[in-house]
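Protein in question passed on here:
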Amino acid sequence: MTDKQQGSSTTIVHPAYESPDGFSAFPTAIHHASTVLFKDVEAMRARSWLNKSTYTYGLHGTPTSFQLEGEIAQIEGGNHCVLAPSGLAAISLVNMAFLEAGDDVLVPDNAYGPNKEQGAWLQRSFGISVRFYDPMIGSGIADLILPNTKLIWTEAPGSVSMEVADVPAICAAAHSKGVLVALDNTWSAGLAFKPFEHGVDISMQALTKYQSGGSDVLMGAVITKDVELNNRLLMAHMRLGLGVGMDDVYLVLRGLQSMKLRFDAHDAAARKLATWLKSRPEIAKVLHPAWEDCPGHEVWKRDFTGAGGLFSVLFDEKYSEAQTDQFVNQLKLFKIGFSWGGSHSLCVPYRIETMRQSWSDKGILVRFNIGLEDVEDLIADIEQSLNSL
């Protein structure tokens, strides 16, 4: 720049002020950026989508998002993390990174509904074979693996029906035939189940849940230990143009600091409320992995260290859908809405028989997310609604 006085527009865009060095604070700084600046042309030309020690473009991350990725990877016990705009976007990222036309993928019958729907779409529109399997199959999954099977999805437990799959047995069978295993680990928040200690190759999280804790952010993450798997994810991430907003990243970073305390509080409250529900004559079965009659309980006891706030119940079959809908509508503190992990309690009825290829239990299924309210107040709310039946 010459000594000529700058125009006012230039001065606004290029201010002379620079903040002093030496500032330190607990929160991670929020670095907003679409354009990333390079110190010279050589640095620009040396950039790489696969090198997380450099920055290329705002879509692929700033120091703020790199911080969150590092923390999520550490919680999960992984080495690498890639962020996505939602949990479903993270599932899509995994499928796009590791599947192509002619491949086969196995998905558990109790998987998150949109994951199953995406599987049907992949089969219909992209020539990828998608097969659904019994989540309790364990090592028997070896019999389902075909020469073109490239990926096996797992979810433990199923986020509606709550069966706990034997993930280590599935991983052992898959790896013996060179097949990758991806786990939707959202239910445990990476706190109650350590995927890589049990053989999982790729762990997916919806950071929308416990990590945020505020029911106000959508975000997903894919975590790996292996650098080659991470590189494939990064290339798919770049090609799909998946990005996250740094203000949202900051909110998740802030939520992480209290996540373990909140998760334990959700867990304790849910167990207390589930214990009370087991005593109610209206309830035929409580589907909570910590209960012995929940499918996969022994696996949960062996592999998990906690349970969080999400569980389901089956009403006695004498109650109609209209009556259980009335029960949900009569609740005051419990609100009707999907998701979990926030401070507010939620309740949703499901037509489970329409969601599953095989479902033998009788009675209407209702899922509860236990928030951070006083448990006695939640029990009183459920009691008054049960009495209305």
In short: The mean pLDDT is 94. The chain has two domains: 41-256, 259-387.
